[in-house]
Amino acid sequence: MNFLRQFHDIVSNQEIDFSDKVIKLLEFGLDVFDLEFGIVSRVDNKLYTVIHVVAPDDAIAVGTQFDIEGTYCTHTLEANKALSFHHASKSHIAQHPCYVNFQLESYIGAPIYVGKKVFGTVNFSAPNVSEPFSEESHDYVELFAQWLGNELARNASSERLLKKNYMLAQVEEVARIGSWELDLLASKLYWSKQTKAIHEVPADYSPNLETAIEFYKEGESRDAIQQVVQEAIEQGKDWNIEIQLITAKGNPIWVSTYGEAEFENGQCSRLIGTFQDVTKEVLLREELKKQKADAERTLEDRSILLAKISHELRTPLNGITGMLTTLLYEKSEQKREEKLKVALRSADILLNIINEVLDFSKINHGELKLEPSHFLLKTIFVDLASLYLPLYQEKNLNFDVDIDISDECWIYCDNTRLTQIASNLLSNALKFTEQGEIKLKVSAKHHNSDVSLHLQVSDTGIGMTESFMKSLFSPFTQEVTKERKQGGTGLGLAIVKELIDYMGGTIQVSSEYQKGSCFDIQLPLKLGQPQSHDALLASDIDFSTLPLSILVVDDNQINRFVLKAHLEKLGLTADYACDGIDAINKCKQNNYNLIFMDCVMPEMDGIEATRILRDEQICPTDKTYIIALTANTSADDKAACKQAGMDLFVSKPVKNTAIEQAIATAKEHFSM
């Protein structure tokens, strides 16, 4: 819009003559293209004559002549349209006399027509390589050429005639800029073709003063245009504003309108101006504002998250480091055991915080994926009840459990996420209830191939205020009262709500301050297929008697040490490799029937190493069981491990029970 405004200002300036306008347009073009030479030429009988020029140090004089075949303009005339070269020495004209003679790397020009006859060219050039010329650059030089042709044909330049000539029509069409004129003395309103197109009225539409105002949207837009028109008539003020129109077809659009007043004998006699449809620009600007606001909110969320996490991590970290440090000097076996338990509980708390942050990050980036499996629905809630009963008993709280689910109700869904939802609600009940009871009520009803799960957790705790209830599921939100002294990231319920929504369920909450809360959840689940109950229990195995040849592959020495401790506890020994290449070399030298393979390692990762071991039959599937060990636990990561040839997936941090069950699965696989 600035370019068109400047172009319009030059060509409509009635205080300068045609030659001055041409020079100003050449200077303006040189600024736009960042070039050095601007020329308007006349071409007659293969002779190229410079008639207007802007050049450094007046290097080219008006009247200078060249053979047209030796100039760049011969290509422009052959193309019969705007033509450009930004790196001529690398183009097809590198051997042409025009480049050999003048060594101009950058050139853009267009033919000038007077009627249907070629008059000459307008061109800009420089010896330096430039950026490729855009479509807008070609549009400008063509419009310049068209204006020159029209002006040369008419041999006159005035703003009124300019609005009627071919060049202005092209400018309006290219930039969707329309012109208008209001003759106050004759009370006549004129709209150009493009102005009518912007208003979506027929080409033969005749605008008038009474109805024109009705196109402006009622309210702020209509008030704004009335004010600027009044100020222009009374004070001679120009205007340039963006306002909203409602077109004849009822479409809301944004326009940039420019207007100025003309006076005769001290009285405003005429208003003239332009319209440009800037709907796309306005919508883009609004979208950028929204994106900026979203980015700022994201940054704020991250800042809050970092602040919360840095605070919440300190407590479990302090428990771990503090207990482990004092163990170095503790000689009482009983106290050593108590301190180890505290350190382990702190580690579990730390892991829960990290998992919450990772879950929230996945949800926030739309990366959450459910991993369904077939399982007995009742076992989830029986296990949770067994887990939380001693925790409630420690606080002298009654735990009322009512599970109305068939023993043979198999479900196909993400049991980990379902457990996470129920566990989070039970943990909150434990955290915010000091006396009384917690109730867990679960029921499942069959509907053809679906199951409707009803889960309810209620407590007699401190409850929630009405104001806090409004932001209950917002991340990082916690109510601060003298009763609510417990910490936390404030992500738990936000994650629960997202998981329930993701699973197609609903959650309703009722609470009364100082009296308790009740969370009521409905989840639609799919019926599952019964699975075999013949899985071997790790507790039934004497691992030390198994004929296992084990290789542990991990680039981290601490991880190798931890796994070594796990295996030694089971009476097992292993060899160790520090990366994928080392693992392949060791497998070529020894026959291992069990490999624990880390996935992320330098030099060669575990996935690539496994693929080589399988493809080259170094460790065929019927002789070697490969277990993936990784902190990356997404469905995509598991799929990548399986595709590479790994048999089992164990996530870090690794626990004794997970290692035992993995070895038990390997034993069952080989029927040891």
TrEMBL record:
<dbReference type="InterPro" id="IPR004358">
    <property type="entry name" value="Sig_transdc_His_kin-like_C"/>
</dbReference>
<dbReference type="InterPro" id="IPR003594">
    <property type="entry name" value="HATPase_dom"/>
</dbReference>
<dbReference type="Pfam" id="PF08447">
    <property type="entry name" value="PAS_3"/>
</dbReference>
<dbReference type="InterPro" id="IPR003661">
    <property type="entry name" value="HisK_dim/P_dom"/>
</dbReference>
<dbReference type="InterPro" id="IPR001789">
    <property type="entry name" value="Sig_transdc_resp-reg_receiver"/>
</dbReference>
<dbReference type="InterPro" id="IPR035965">
    <property type="entry name" value="PAS-like_dom_sf"/>
</dbReference>
<dbReference type="Pfam" id="PF01590">
    <property type="entry name" value="GAF"/>
</dbReference>
<feature type="domain" description="PAC">
    <location>
        <begin position="239"/>
        <end position="290"/>
    </location>
</feature>
<dbReference type="Pfam" id="PF00512">
    <property type="entry name" value="HisKA"/>
</dbReference>
<dbReference type="Pfam" id="PF00072">
    <property type="entry name" value="Response_reg"/>
</dbReference>
<dbReference type="InterPro" id="IPR036890">
    <property type="entry name" value="HATPase_C_sf"/>
</dbReference>
<dbReference type="InterPro" id="IPR003018">
    <property type="entry name" value="GAF"/>
</dbReference>
<dbReference type="InterPro" id="IPR000700">
    <property type="entry name" value="PAS-assoc_C"/>
</dbReference>
<dbReference type="Pfam" id="PF02518">
    <property type="entry name" value="HATPase_c"/>
</dbReference>
<feature type="domain" description="Histidine kinase">
    <location>
        <begin position="308"/>
        <end position="527"/>
    </location>
</feature>
<dbReference type="InterPro" id="IPR005467">
    <property type="entry name" value="His_kinase_dom"/>
</dbReference>
<protein>
    <recommendedName>
        <fullName>histidine kinase</fullName>
        <ecNumber>2.7.13.3</ecNumber>
    </recommendedName>
</protein>
<dbReference type="InterPro" id="IPR013655">
    <property type="entry name" value="PAS_fold_3"/>
</dbReference>
<keyword id="KW-0418">Kinase</keyword>
<feature type="modified residue" description="4-aspartylphosphate">
    <location>
        <position position="598"/>
    </location>
</feature>
<keyword id="KW-0597">Phosphoprotein</keyword>
<dbReference type="InterPro" id="IPR011006">
    <property type="entry name" value="CheY-like_superfamily"/>
</dbReference>
<feature type="domain" description="Response regulatory">
    <location>
        <begin position="549"/>
        <end position="667"/>
    </location>
</feature>
<dbReference type="InterPro" id="IPR029016">
    <property type="entry name" value="GAF-like_dom_sf"/>
</dbReference>
<dbReference type="InterPro" id="IPR036097">
    <property type="entry name" value="HisK_dim/P_sf"/>
</dbReference>
<keyword id="KW-0808">Transferase</keyword>
